[in-house]
Protein: Urea carboxylase
Amino acid sequence: MSLSSPSSKHKLLIANRGEIAVRILRTAISFSQTPERPNTISTVAVYTPTDALSPHVSLANEAVSLSRAVDQLGPGQSEGNAYLNAKAILEICKEHGVTMVHPGYGFLSENAEFAKMIGEEGIIWLGPKHDVIRDMGIKHEARRIALRAGIPVVPGSEECVDSVERAVEVAKRVGFPMILKATAGGGGMGMVVCENEEELEAKLGNTIERAKTLFGDGRVFLERYFSAARHIEVQVFGDGQGKVIHFGERECSVQRRHQKVLEESPSPFCLANPGLRDKICEAAVRLCESINVCWTTQELSNSSWTRKTAQFFFLEMNTRIQVEHPVTEAVHLNLDLVRMMIEHGIAERAGRTVKLPLQPSFDDPNSLHAIEVRIYSENPFENFNPSPGVLQHVELDIEKDAPWLRIDSWISTGTTITPFYDPLLCKVIVSDTSREAVLGKLEKVLEKVKIQGPPNNVEFLLSLVRNEVFRDGKANTKFLDSFKFVPQSFTVVSGGLESTVQDYPGRSVGLGIPPSGPMDSLAFRAANILVGNPHTTEGIEIIVVPNVDFEAVFHTTSVVAVTGRELEVKIDDKVVDTWTHLVVPSGGRLLIRAPQSGTSGLRNYLAVRGGFPSIPKYLGSKSTSMGLGGYQGRSLLRGDEIALGDSQPIGAEEKEHWRVPQELVPDYPAEWVVHVLDGPQDDKEYLSPEGNAEFYGTAWKVSASSNRMGIRLEGLDSIKWARKNGGEGGSHPSNILDNGYVLGALNINGDTPVILTNEGPDMGGYICFCTVAVGDRWKLGQLSPGQYVRFKRISWHQSRRLSENCDEWLSQVVRSAKNQERGAESSVAKLSRVELDETPQDPRLLEISQGAGSGRPRAVFRQAGDGAILVEYGPMTLDFNLRARIHALETLIKSKNITGIGTFCPCIRSTVCHFDPLVVSQQGVLRALMEADNELPHQMTDMEFPGRRITFPIVLNDKWSRDAIFRYMKSTRSEASYLPSNVEYLAKNNGLEDANEALAKLVGSDWFVFGVGFYLACPFLVPVDPRCRLVGQKMNPSRTYTPRGAIGIAGVVAAIYPVESPGGYMLYGRTLPAWQTWGRGKDFTKDQPWLLQPFDQVHFEPINEEAYVELEQAFDAGRHTFPTESVTFSMKEYTSFVESIREQVATFKKVQADAVAIEERREEELLKKWLSGKRTSGNQKEVDEVTAGSTPVLSPLMASVWKIPASKERVIKTADEILVVLEAMKTEIQ
Structure:
C-alpha cells in the first residue's frame, strides 16, 4: 500500500498521555521513517500543566496545551479531567489540521459521543465505530448481543435492576454469591460482591449512587460471582467488511481490586485444558463478526472457571486498545497493532481495503510465551495506595537490544508522579520459547530494574513471580486476596520536628553544592558502629521537641541504634537505652521522644543495619539537601515508607545489647566551648583590637533562627570594626568582594555572626572572622536555640590534635561495641570536656608585598580552618588582571598534581585552596602556593584563557521579579531606596537618566563569569565593558522569595538564581537558570547539572514573557540547547580595549560615585525609619507572673512567636487546637 502521494499526508493527534501516548508516537514516528513511506504522518500531542515535561510532549511534532480545558474545570475537579474534555480536544484537531485521532486507552477511548464527533468532522477515528462503542460499552446490552451471537454469558439478570425486590428475585434464581455491576463501568470500578441476601439489600442503593457519581449512569445489573475464576481475553482485529481474525488469547487472572497486575500469553489455563483455547477464540471471532467490527483492536474478555470441567462465559468487550496489548505482540513476531490501526484507518478513508493476515499464522500457541508485568507507583503493603512523588533515579536501560525484552515506559530520572492520573510507570514484557524460561528472565530483569523514589510494586512483582502457585500456572482472580507480601521496610508514623536522611561525609563537589551530611558526625558514626554498618552508611538525623515525636513501624526485624542527646526511646512501649545496639521486632514501633525539660543538645541519629539501599545517591551522596538527595529531597513525613537492606540480627544478637560505655558518651552542656582557628579575616585590617577582644570574650546565644544552613548568634548590638565600609564590596564594613567560604566559618552578616554549617554557601560577600576546628564541628550539631557558646582560638597543630582525639574516641567506640570493653578514662572519654590552651594567631600566614614598578600585585595567604588557605591578590577592587592571576595560579597548581591538594573556590580577586590535613600539612600547602605564585609572570598581559560564549534569553524587568519585590514590600519592608522598583533604583544609583537606560546598559555588554558557587553552581558575572558595570546594594533585610532564573546585582556583581530561594540582589530580569537538577538536555549531565564555569562569557538576548514561558518549559523538559561558541579571552586585547575607553570609564565612574553617595544617604535615613518603626511595633509587655486562674502553656523549645491564632475569650475544647505558632530553625511549630 502506497501512502506517498500528497493526498495521503496525515496528521495524527494522540488524545492521551503517559506510556500509551509514547507507545503510539513511536509507531507513528517509525511508520513515517520507512523508505516506502517518507514523512507520511506528523503527530500532535496534548497535555495539561503537570504533563508539560512528559516525553509524549517532546516526541510529537507539535504539542498543544489543554489550558482551555483546565480553565473550564469546576471546583474540586482533578486536572486529569482535562483529557476528558471532548469539545476542547476536537477544537484542537480542527485548529491544527488533524486528520486522525488515536484515543489510546482510558479517558475518551470508549466515549461513543466523542468518536461520533470526530467522525462527523471528517477526521479518522482509530477505533471502532461509535455505535459499536455505545452498544458494547453498556454491559447489559453487550450481554444481549453476545447471547444473540450464541456466546455463553455469566448467569445473571437479563435487564438492569433498580429495586431490592427485583435484585433478590434474580439472586434466588441464579444463586449466591452475586456481583453488582455498573453497566457503564470499567477499569475495575463499579463492581460490588454480595455474599448473601442481606448484603445485596444493603449494598444495592450505594452501588447505584456510586455508579451515578463515577459514570453518570446509575444503572446496575447482577451476575453470578465466580470467586476463583480465570480471566482470559482474546485479541481480535476486523477489517470493517465482515472479516475478523484473532491473535490468540492472553490471561489476566492476577488482579488487585479487579484491576490487572500481570498478563501472559498463551494462557496457562488454556494450555492445561486442550481445546478450550479454540472454543474461546472461535466465540470471540463469531461475536465480532456479528457486529461487523471495523479495523481496530478489540478485547473480548472471558471468565473461565473449572472444577472438573472448564466452562467459559462472555464478560465484556473493550472497544479500544488494551494496556496489555504488548504481550500479544510479543508472541507474534513483527506484529504491531497500532501500526495496523493506522494503516487500516488511512486505507478506509481512501476507499481501499487492506487484507488481513491469514488466520493460521496466529493459531500456534506454543511457539513463544510472553509475560507482561505492570510497574506502578503504588504501595502494595498499604492496599496498593498510589504513591505520588519524584522518581529520583530511573534505570530501565537493561539487557540492551535483547530481542526478548520490551519495556514500554514514559518515565525517567526526575519525573514527578502526580496524584491526578493512574500511577502506571512502565510495563515490562519478556518473551521466550517456554514459560519457564520467561519466568527466569523476568525475575532477573525485575532484580535489575531501578525505579527509586516513592514506593512502587517492583518487590511485590518479584515475590509474585517467585510464588509457587503462580509458577505452576494456578493463579486465579482471587489469588492476590491470600497472597502475603510484607516489605522489608519501615513506615514513618511521625517525623518529629525534622528528620532527614544523611550519610557521611556527604558531598564533596564544591561549586556551592552543599556538603550536607550529619551535623554531629561523631554521634552519627557511632550509631553506625553499633549496628555493624560502615561509618559512611546513610542514617536519619532527627530533631524532636516536646510533643513532636519521631515514630516508625518496622515491617521486618531490624537492628537499630539511637545516639545523640539524652531522651526517651521506646520499642513497643518498653523503654530502651540510647547509645545501644537494639533490635526492633517485625511489626514493632520505635518511638523517639524529647523530655519536657532538663536536657541539652539538639539532634539524634537513627542507624539501621544495612542502610536504605533504595534511596539513590545524588552527586555522590544520599544526604538530603535543599530539595535534593535523601528521600524526596525533604524531611520525612507521616506515611513515608523507607526500604531497608539486610537489617536482621544474626545469631543471638536479639538477646545481646552492645552499648557505648557511659564514660564515652559525650556530655551536651548548656554552655559550650568551641575551638576555632583564627581567620581568614579577624585581623586588624577588618577588626579593631577592641572589637577582637570583645568578640572572643562574649558568650553568644544561639538564635531560634538557626538551621542546617547556619547557626545564627546573638550577643552584641554591634561589632567594633577597623574600617568604615567595605569599599567596592559594599557599604557595610562586613562587606567584601565575594570570596570563598569553608564549612564551619563564622560569617559576619552585617553585625550578626552566623556559623556556616552543612547546607551553607561556599562563597559570598561577607567576611569570616574564624573557622571552627574540624575536631569540634560535631558540637555544631548539638547547639540548641537558647544555649550559649564561647569561641576559644587554637593553632593549626592544636586543631590536628583535636581531630586525632576524635579519631581515638571512635576507635574506642568500635572496641567497646565489639568487645564490650569499658572505655578507659582518658582525654577522649568526654569529648565535650576537652579544652585546649587559647593560642591566638595572625590569620595572615604569608604576605608578599606588591613589587615596586613590576605590576605584580600584593598577595596575602590567609588561614581558613584546618584544611584551607584563602589566597588574595591586590586591593579590594574588581580587576580582570587579578582574576586572571587567580586562574593562572589554580591552573599551575593543578598541573603539579600535588598530593593532598583538592578543589579550589575562585571568585573576584581570591581563591580558597582546599587540602586534606591528613595527607599534607598547612605549611606544605603554603609552600606549594608560594612557589607557584613565584612562577607566575609579573603581569597577565600576555595570558590567554579558553572559554565559551553562551547565549541566554532574558526578560527585562519581568513580572516574576516584580512580584517578588511586591511580596517583599507586603511582608518585610515597605520603604527603601530600592523600592518599589529595583530597576529604577539601579538607574538612580548609577546616575542614569531612567530605567530604560539602565536596562540597555545591562544587556549592552557580554558578561564574564568570575566565579561559580554560593548555592548550586550560581554564576557570579561581571560585564566585560566597564561602562556597563552598574552597582547596587543588597536588600536589607533580604527577600524570603526569589524566582528561579532571576538575575540581580549586588555591588558590581550579578548572579543568576539557580532555584527558587531567598536573596538580596537587586532584580532586573529573568533568564533560564544555569542549573538543571536532573541533568536533562545536551548542555547538562546527571553528574554535572550545572552549565557555566569560570572564564565563560554570557551574552543576554532580550525576549518577551510569552517566549520565556515556552523556553522555560523546553528547558525543564531537556529540549532547550543554549547557543554556544568557543572563544579565547585575551588579556592583551582586553587591556587595549579598556585603555581605549579610559576617559569614558572615568566619566561614568565619577557620575556613578556621586549617585551612589546620594542613594546611600537616602537609604540610611529610610533604614533608620524602618528600624525605629520595627522597634515600636515590636514592643512587647513581659509578664513575670501568671494571672490567677490561668494555665501556662510551655513552649517546646526556644523559638520566636510567629502567629497567635488564639483570641481573648475563646473556649479551648480539644488538645488539638492551635494556640500559638512558633518559628525556630526556619520551621513553623504549632
